[in-house]
Amino acid sequence: MQNITPEMWKLLFVGFIIGVLFTYIFVRFVAGSAKQQAQKDNELKKLQKELEVQRHHLEKHFSENAELMHTLAQDYQKLYEHFIKNQETLLPKVKENVFMPEVKNKEAVSDDNNDIKEITKKSPPKDYSEEPSGLLKN
């Protein structure tokens, strides 16, 4: 083998120091991004859990709203049926429906639940004029 001169030792030592510095900087850079990645992963998991909890609360809210609206609709239907049934008793001289005056021909049909269904003959809305307005004339 050849003899290593002091200048070669100096170059090897400087190269070793430069290699150690580059390695240190690279490890710092990679380790820092790994820590940031771990933090971001933890934050993502936390936000996903919060989103799932919020989604659960939202689903519960809307299911309760749907249930309440269904109950409200049933109560209004019962109230209307009560009014219709008692109209004949309390107002025997009135032949037409007081609660829906636009209904002219009414047939009451009862099913198994004693619900009253209205079969109506619809008339056109009263906001239309029977005569042409003249807006589309040339």
Provide an overview of this structure:
By secondary structure, the chain is mostly helical. Helices cover 62% and strands 7% of the residues. The chain contains one helix and two strands; from the N terminus they run H-E-E. The protein has one helix spanning 6-90; strands spanning 106-110, 116-120. The protein has a two-stranded antiparallel sheet. A hairpin with a 5-residue loop joins strand 1 (106-110) and strand 2. The radius of gyration is 42 Å and the shape is elongated. It starts with 5 loop residues before the first helix and ends in an 18-residue tail after the last strand. The model is unreliable at 103-120 (pLDDT under 50).
Set out the fold topology.
Elements: H1 6-90, E1 106-110, E2 116-120
Antiparallel strand pairs: 1-2
Q: What is the average per-residue confidence, as pLDDT, rounded to a whole number?
A: 79
Largest sheet: 2 strands, antiparallel
Number of beta-strand segments: 2
Number of DSSP helical runs: 1
Cα shape: elongated
Low-confidence stretches: 103-120
Question: What order do the SSEs take from the amino end to the carboxyl end, as H and E?
Answer: HEE
Distance between the termini: 113 Å
Percent of residues in helices comes to 55-70%
SSE class? mainly alpha
% residues in beta strands: 5-15%
- Rounded to an integer in angstroms, the radius of gyration calculated over CA atoms is 42 Å
Strand order of the largest sheet: 1-2
Descriptors:
single chain; 138 residues; 62% helix
